[in-house]
Amino acid sequence: MPTLAEFVKAYDVRGIVPDQLSPRVAEAIGAAFAEVVAIPDGSRGIVVGHDMRPSSPELSAAFAAGVTSRGVDVTLIGLCSTDGLYYASGALGLPGAMFTASHNPARYNGIKLCRSGARPVGQDSGLAEIRDLAQWMLDGGTGLAAPVGGPGSVESRDLLADYAAFLRGLVDLSAIRPLKVVVDAGNGMGGHTVPAVLGTAAGLPELPLEVVPLYFELDGTFPNHEANPLDPANLVDLQAAVREHGADIGLAFDGDADRCFVVDADGEPVSPSAITGLVATREIARARAGGDDDVAVVHNVISSAAVAEIVREAGARPVRTRVGHSFIKAEMARHGAVFGGEHSAHYYFRDFWFADTGMLAALHVLAALGEQERPLSEVCDRFERYVASGEINSTVSDQHGVIEQIRAWASEHGARTDELDGLTIACPEGTDPMWWFNVRASNTEPLLRLNVEAADRETMERLRDELLALIRADRDPVPTTDRPDGGEAP
């Protein structure tokens, strides 16, 4: 049996079924989660949900058995999106476990864990202890005290309608102009949640939306395309459908439907940084109208420079942090931030327990579009200020050595540097045209990740090519505009 360290990542569990993640392993992780999180926190139970992958029901049931073996109760909510699990954790005040491998191929599955109130569980906030205790159990460890009162109980609840009603209560679409919306669920959990939130499947009133569904059939083998909209190849069907149907907007969700990507009426993608800017202005305005004088918005280091500008222009305070949901959520809680956004289309809301929900971001975009008459391209124009390369990965054996060469390059050019997350280098003050870039080493692979942004395309491409030549000198490159992990971890 492989060791858990091979597939228990910095933020979640993600492994091949059953070679790595088997029912036996899931049961051990469930027992360890109960011991490390639920019992010390005084939780009265744990809520467990799962996606549409063929292995998810069996794995989640095994996990629940591990939890109840430690005397902790389990509430099973069945099929749900990851943000649906976060809703359950927040609304019920329980730690949670979501069985999903997001956009990864069908042979994978995984577990996203959280404390009550959807607070993150990562490598530095309990996941390492869960991994080590589960490994000890799998290796034959004995000696855990028998649970007082015997095994825990199991109950089942359907929270889809409550989840949908909660989101609708945060953004009211009832009075917007009629919109035609194409939604590509990628055979993932968006096919379960979109009809409930945007339609009437959960018994909610009809909205002025005509939803054109693409790949709403729940199928964890992903027969049409990968459920990873960060890869432009997976947006092609959505773009074509938007143009074919004369739609006002297109939405694409990833496999567990916690990320949402947007295309305009011409089928052109709207960058996640622009969506961050758009949603931020709405949330800032709402917070200030409610009397909040110190409004903060969190963004990661590779979001567009426009995000911080837009936040300041709206009278709020931008907070810059590292890539990754545990860092975003921690900074949001520390600053009481009203909203947070990442380049990977994860969007976080104070009103959603500081957790990420692509569906709530989609509601904001639909409201911004439907509350006025202009097309989405014009609505987003003021948020798309600069030209970005997208994230480019290169295979590099000596990551440290290459980063030191880039640091020397920055010194020669009189550039500004910081090391909040990798190495960020920005042009000297007053430089026209503006540029900046970030280079970060992968935690799990011999890769360097490069992001470049500039005031114009010529500057961005010149800088990008110069840096790639430096990074890839005498090396075998693996060019891509997407991270292998789909943008969910650094």
UniProtKB/TrEMBL annotation:
It holds the Pfam family PGM_PMM_I. GO terms for biological process: carbohydrate metabolic process. It comes from the Bacteria. Its cofactor is Mg(2+). Coiled coil: none annotated. Gene3D superfamilies: Alpha-D-Glucose-1,6-Bisphosphate, subunit A, domain 3 (3.40.120.10), Alpha-D-phosphohexomutase, C-terminal domain (3.30.310.50). InterPro entries: A-D-PHexomutase_a/b/a-I, A-D-PHexomutase_a/b/a-I/II/III, A-D-PHexomutase_a/b/a-II, A-D-PHexomutase_a/b/a-III, A-D-PHexomutase_C, A-D-PHexomutase_C_sf, Alpha-D-phosphohexomutase_SF. The lineage of its organism: Bacteria, Bacillati, Actinomycetota, Actinomycetes, Micrococcales. CDD domains: PMM_PGM. Keywords: Isomerase, Magnesium, Metal-binding, Phosphoprotein. Residues 391-468 form the Alpha-D-phosphohexomutase C-terminal domain. NCBIfam families: PRK09542.1. It comes from Humibacillus xanthopallidus. PANTHER family: PHOSPHOMANNOMUTASE. One of its GO terms (molecular function) is metal ion binding. Residues 8-130, 162-267, 279-386 form the Alpha-D-phosphohexomutase alpha/beta/alpha domain. Belongs to the phosphohexose mutase family. This is Phosphomannomutase.
